[in-house]
Design goal:
The protein is α/β, with parallel strands linked by helices. The protein has one domain: 3-Layer(aba) Sandwich (Rossmann fold). It contains 6 helices and 9 strands; from the N terminus they run H-E-E-H-E-H-E-H-E-E-H-E-H-E-E. It has a 7-stranded mixed beta sheet, sandwiched between helices. The protein is globular.
């Protein structure tokens, strides 16, 4: 009920403020990291998903683990994992985010391999212990780099490609993906089923606006 009353405020006040705020480079502090946020790159503190993934990963022993962040944005998750001595690769489809991630690794004096790639296209032979995914999950076609963080294609093409590539990966990586109850979770899970993948909730986080669930993606059978 509260969420219903908050929607007009979010649509007409908060969202325009956020768009204006994100036009300039910003610097934020999160999980002991100093993070630059460049215009057009997903902001790690204005939205909940990055915070929840950081909280989730804080319970893992990442020492010497090979970790891949798919869709790295500013590289916040990657930089955090690197502070825990993980061997980290971070990828994103657009070069601006890759540059932003590279800069944040330098700022925080950690080693992160930042690559431009459409999902696994350029890392087909690499293997990992953990894969962390904060995906775009709204139906629609991105018209610019910024929207690539939000829209997965009018026919959910992002998930079609993601699940196809995960099905054919030849490693035993543990794969975690975060989704909001604002998206079409049943549709996304059904696409996973088409590729013999199962999405299982392993952790849930809630706030007054939404519920975020972290799913483990596993191969069936």
């Amino acid at each position: 009920m509260l969420k219903k009353f908050l929607k007009p405020f979010l649509n007409y006040v908060y969202k325009p403020f956020v768009k204006l705020y994100l036009r300039k480079k910003r610097t934020v502090q999160i999980s002991g990291l100093t993070i630059e946020v460049w215009p057009g790159v997903f902001h790690p503190t204005l939205f909940y998903s990055t915070k929840y993934l950081l909280q989730f990963l804080s319970g893992f022993d990442l020492n010497n683990k090979r970790l891949l962040e798919l869709g790295c944005g500013t590289g916040t998750i990657s930089c955090y994992a690197a502070t825990k001595n993980a061997v980290v690769t971070a990828i994103y489809i657009n070069q601006t985010a890759v540059g932003n991630c590279t800069k944040n690794a330098m700022l925080n004096k950690v080693k992160v391999l930042c690559l431009q790639s459409d999902l696994f296209d350029k890392i087909t032979n690499a293997t990992f212990d953990y894969i962390i995914i904060n995906p775009p999950y709204y139906a629609g076609n991105a018209t610019n780099d910024e929207e690539q963080a939000w829209y997965c294609g009018s026919e959910y093409q992002y998930f079609e490609k993601l699940f196809f590539q995960l099905k054919n990966k030849n490693d035993d990586a543990t794969v975690f993906m975060i989704l909001s109850d604002e998206c079409a979770i049943e549709k996304i899970a059904a696409i996973g089923t088409n590729y013999s993948l199962e999405l299982k909730v392993v952790k849930e986080y809630s706030n007054i606006l939404e519920r975020n669930s972290i799913y483990e993606i596993k191969k069936r059978g």
